[in-house]
Structure formats: C-alpha cells, structure tokens
C-alpha cells in the first residue's frame, strides 16, 4: 500500500469525518517529528483560511441583513401609507355611493325621525361631557368645543416605543374629531380622577397595528408627527374595538370634511318661481373657488418639513399669507392648518439653534444663519435672538476652556483676553448680519448678553491677577491689555470700558494701597543702612550708564556730577527716584476718574515718607548742606518731572503733591548760597 505524500484535506468536509481516526491514520503514515510538524502547520493554515472566510461571509451577510431590514422598514411604512390612503378612499367612495343628489320620500322620513331623536342625543351627549368635565382637570376648553361629542373611552397602558417598557396608565377619550389623553391624578381626593395631558386631531394622527412580540401584546401605535406613541390594551377584543372605533371616527370625519368642501363649492340656485320674479332685481351669487396650489399648501408644508427643506416651507407660508391677506373671508379652515404647520416648522428651526451637549459646534455661527434668517422671516426674531445668544455663550465658554494656564500672568491674560474679545467681535458681526434691522428688544438683548459675558470675564480676570504676590507693574500690564481689547467692541457700537473700569475699581484701589504700603516699607529698610554720603559709581562707564538710565526716565543728573565717578545724591534717594517714577507711570496707566483719588493718595504718601526720612537726616550737622542739596533735588527736580507727567495724563497738576512740597520748601531757606562739602568724598 502506497503511503500518500500529502494528507487528504477533503476528508475534513465529509459527513462521516472522525477526528480521532484521521489523526491516527496520519500518525501511522508519517514518521518523524519534522513531517508531523509540517502537517500541523498545513492544517493550521487551512484552519486560519477557513476562519477568515467565515468572518468575511458573516460580515457580508450582516451588511446584507441590515440593508434588507432597512428596505423592509421603508416598504412597511410605504405599505402602511398606501393601505391608509386606500381605506380612506374606500370609506369616501362608500359614503358617496350611499348618498343621493335628489331627495326621495324615504330620505324625508329618515330626516323626520332624526329630528325627533336629536334632542335626546344632544341631552345624552351633554351628560357625557359634563361627566368628563367632573372627572378630568383642565379640560374645560376641550369639552366645551362646539359640535364635539364622545364616541368611546377606556384605560390603556403606554409603552416606550424604543425600550418596550411600561411607562404609565392613561385614560383615553375618543371624540368625533379628536383624541384626548389623560393621566391618573394621584393627588386629587375628589371626583377629578384624571388630569388633562394632550389633545390630538383625528386628521393629524394615524393608527398602526402592532404584532404581538414577547411581553408586548394587544398593542397599537399612534403616529403623531413627529412622535410615535405605543399603547397596550387589556385584551385582543379591546384592541380590536379601539382600532375599529378610531378608524370609523376618522372615516366619518373625512366624509364630513369632504361634504363641507363640496357644499362650499356648490352653487346654490333659488327656486324657479322665485328666480323668475327676482331675475330683474337680483344678480346670481358668485361662487369663490381657491386655486389648487393653495389647497395643497398644507400637504406641501408636510413634505418640506419632513425633508428638512425649510426655505421652501417658508416660501410656501409667505406665498399663502399673501393670498390670505387678499381673500381673508374664505380661508378659515386652510389658514388654521397652515398656522399649525408653521408652528411645527418654528419648533424644528428652534431645535437647530438649541444648545445640546451632543451637538457639534464645529460649523460655528455660520451654520446658524439659515435657521435665524427663516425664524426672522416667520416673525420669531425674539426667540431666534435668545437662542442665538445662548449658543454664543456656549461657544465662548468652550473657547475659554481651551486657553491653558501656562507661563506668566501677563502671558495668560494676553491669550485669554484675545480669545474672549476676538470671539465677542466675531459674534457681534454675526449678530449684526443676522439681525440687520433688529428691533429694540433684540438690540437690548445683545447688550445685556455682552454685559453678562464681560462680567464673567472680569470675575475670572480678578481671581487670576489680583493676588498678594502680583506686583503693581504686572497688574498694570494686564489691565492695559484688557482695556485695549475691550476698545475693539466700540467698532460695533457698544462701549463697555466704563463697565470694565467699574468692575476693576475695587481691586485696583486695594492693589494701589498694597503697593503704597510695600513702597513705604522699602523706604524704611533703605533708611537703616543710609550713611549720607555721595554715590561712588567706581568707573566713568558706570557713571555714564547711570546718567543714561535716569535720562530714559526723564531726569538729567549732569549737574550733580563731581569728579569722575561721584554723584552728589544719596543711594537711597537715587533708588527712591527710580522706583517712584516707575510707580508714577503705572498709576497713570491705570488712571480713571474714580481712581484719581487713590492714585493721588498713593503718590503723596510715598513721596512724604521719603521727605520725612531726609528731614530726619538734617540732624547731622556735618552733612547738612549735602542733605539740603538732596532735598532740593526731590522737591524741585523730581517734583517738576512728576507734575509734568501727571499733567500730560490728567490735564492738571496733583494738588496734594504741591501742598506737600510747599510745606517742605521752608527747609531750603536755611541753605547757604554756596554749598561746601568735605574733601574726603572728592
């Protein structure tokens, strides 16, 4: 017997395949571990290939299953619509076939009998409606509607259309023209057992049978655009009764509407004898008929709304309104339907503008232009403005969260203020584009919105900037940045600089007071080590750098130079001068009318502390003339530069500083005409 070189893999797919026998035969035919390893690899490769093929087939079948399910779902919907239309047409044809154009004696007899029973039926209907009024809260307008009577009522269990779980028990009333849903009133202890929930017109709903599946039995669907509600009956007989009653009510309602439409189009001809007598004095009554496009407007609006063709829907509404304004006396029923469709369209457009966490804002405000424009055309500019501004707030909040707290305080404030005010400018542009001829309400709503967003920003800004360890120079830099960004809004007709300054007034006043206290403390520390000797700058280059540094600040110290490296000012006065001029620049950058008092007080207190320290040095008789020269520098040179800068910023000089200078000028009178200095410092 010849041993095959390759195993027969076709045996794996045979019906009588035995794995143990197959392995035993291979073990007998192949000798050695290497051959068995090769066979194992081939079988493993075959298994992998088979697994991949199975996965591909499963995926293809699954995709095919999904597509088939979608097609079946669409086909089911279309078949339902077709069945619904056919049943309505059948009912209409049946009703028309039973009616007769010419009246006969039997019709007269039936009418006579109906008139006899009319009062009894009316009384019975009144009693039923009165009972409903006693049982159901907030249904007075529903019950008191003219020509409305009760057909059927009963309890139903509402089922969640998605989860197939029970929601609540409802009591349903079927009228000749509508369907009313009520909830059980657990809080009421009187006769009112139910509370009104909703009312649906029969012409706006459709009933669909639901097949029994699992725990869901004896159920049917109510299709009410754009929602679907599922109700479960207690038994199959109850379900059949509900379906029959609703279907019969819809057919009857459809026939009545058709008869009303035909009666409005029929020409009412007077009796022959009367027409002969009045043919001279009277003219035939004209019958007004609407064009077909106007009668089809409600259906066209349904199609446009379902297909999200909102602009076409608005065009249809505007066209119909123009026609209604020309013929207001013949459009009552159709106008009511058009108003209902318009309300549905408005709700869908407003949902386009609602802030939703699951909704992507990647399109920005440009994506809202169409919805806002259409709402404005429909006369809902107030609602569209409110939703537009809420969307702006949401987008601004998201943009601010993306700014990371990195680097220095001024860097973070620069980035944050740029993001906030750039977005506010862009939103202002979009607002002016969306509401070019906005009413006063929209304009005021925008101002209130912008003011609120600025308040949120200033609150966050104050928490980040006004901290004890932040220097006044850093605070000044940040405030100047925010003020310059806020000025950009002036281009769009809104100026919030006063609000910004008002929000920062209290923290800035506190910051100025803290800076003043720190400045005075630094003066006291320098006074401890003061020796009342001129400053030695060691080298000519050092002296030149010092003179250049103070020249940048606006001071010329050439007259105080003696020798090659000496400056006839104390080190503490030089340090004070530099710090004071920096403080002055910061204060003037922060200048507002409300902060001027705090600024004047800060500058005066700091300057007074330095003068008081120099006054104490006059007790040293040996260096009195040198100290008086420093006094002269502070009271004349430094004060003159300070008042010049102050006047350039405010338009007038600082009165508190002038008063302080006048008080200390008396000390200069004791100075001799020629100042003498000790030679040990030259």
Task: Please characterize this protein's 3D structure.
By secondary structure, the protein is of the alpha+beta class. The protein folds into five domains: 1-99; 109-263, Pleckstrin-homology domain (PH domain)/Phosphotyrosine-binding domain (PTB) (PH-domain like, Roll); 292-346, no CATH class; 354-495; 517-681. The chain contains 21 helices and eleven strands. The strands form two sheets. Strands 1-5-4-3-2-8-7-6 form an eight-stranded mixed β-sheet, sandwiched between helices. A three-stranded antiparallel β-sheet has the order 9-11-10, with no helix packed on it. Strand 2 and strand 3 form a beta hairpin. Helix 8 packs antiparallel against helix 9, helix 16 runs parallel beside helix 19 (596-617) and helix 19 (596-617) packs antiparallel against helix 20. It is elongated. Component of the exocyst complex involved in the docking of exocytic vesicles with fusion sites on the plasma membrane. One of its GO terms (biological process) is Golgi to plasma membrane transport.
Topology:
Elements: H1 19-29, H2 33-98, H3 105-135, E1 136-137, H4 140-143, E2 150-159, E3 166-175, E4 178-184, E5 194-201, E6 205-210, E7 219-224, E8 227-232, H5 236-265, H6 272-278, H7 292-295, H8 297-306, H9 310-326, H10 332-353, H11 369-377, H12 381-401, H13 409-434, H14 440-465, H15 472-486, H16 497-528, E9 535-536, H17 540-552, E10 561-562, E11 566-567, H18 571-589, H19 596-617, H20 624-650, H21 655-664
Helix pairs in contact: 2-5, 8-9, 8-10, 9-10, 10-11, 11-12, 12-13, 12-14, 13-14, 13-15, 14-16, 15-16, 15-18, 16-18, 16-19, 18-19, 18-20, 19-20, 19-21
Family: Belongs to the EXO84 family.
InterPro entries: Cullin_repeat-like_dom_sf, Exo84, Exo84_C, Exo84_C_1, Exo84_C_2, PH-like_dom_sf, PH_domain, SOS1_NGEF_PH
Protein name: Exocyst complex component 8
